[in-house]
Write a structure and sequence with these properties.
By secondary structure, this protein is α/β, with parallel strands linked by helices. Helices cover 39% and strands 23% of the residues. It has a single domain (7-103), classed as STAS domain (Transcription Regulator spoIIAA, 2-Layer Sandwich). It contains four helices and five strands; from the N terminus they run ββαβαβαβα.
């Protein structure tokens, strides 16, 4: 079975758009992209992520933990039902700030002020 690639596009400061599955085969590029970001709030656009495996989930939680320790926030946008189901089963949906769309997240953080 050929592995599917994960494309990571740097959309704006602190905004990464992901296209493709977040799986064991592409955890390293994902974590490297996350480490390169230093914005106070990092938004991960998951609208192009059809699924993730346990390694992908682990890397996402690791990215969240690293950002929290550095005093940064992480938000997810565009999470589909399949990915959300994994979050719910593993009880991690509660740790992530989630928005339906990237524009919703950008608007929330733009209008949040110091919240």
């Amino acid at each position: 079975m050929a592995s599917e690639t994960l494309e990571i596009e740097h959309v704006d400061r602190g905004v990464l758009s992901l296209r493709g599955p977040l799986t064991m085969e592409n955890v390293s590029p994902f974590l490297n992209a996350v480490r390169r970001e230093n914005a106070p709030t990092m938004i991960l656009d998951f609208s192009g992520v059809p699924y993730l495996d346990s390694s992908g989930l682990g890397s996402l939680v690791s990215a969240y933990t690293s950002c929290q320790k550095a005093g940064r926030r992480v938000a997810l946008t565009g999470v589909n039902q399949r990915v959300m189901k994994v979050f719910e089963i593993t009880k991690v949906e509660e740790i992530f700030l989630m928005f339906p769309t990237l524009s919703d997240a950008l608007e929330a953080f733009t209008n949040a002020g110091t919240a």
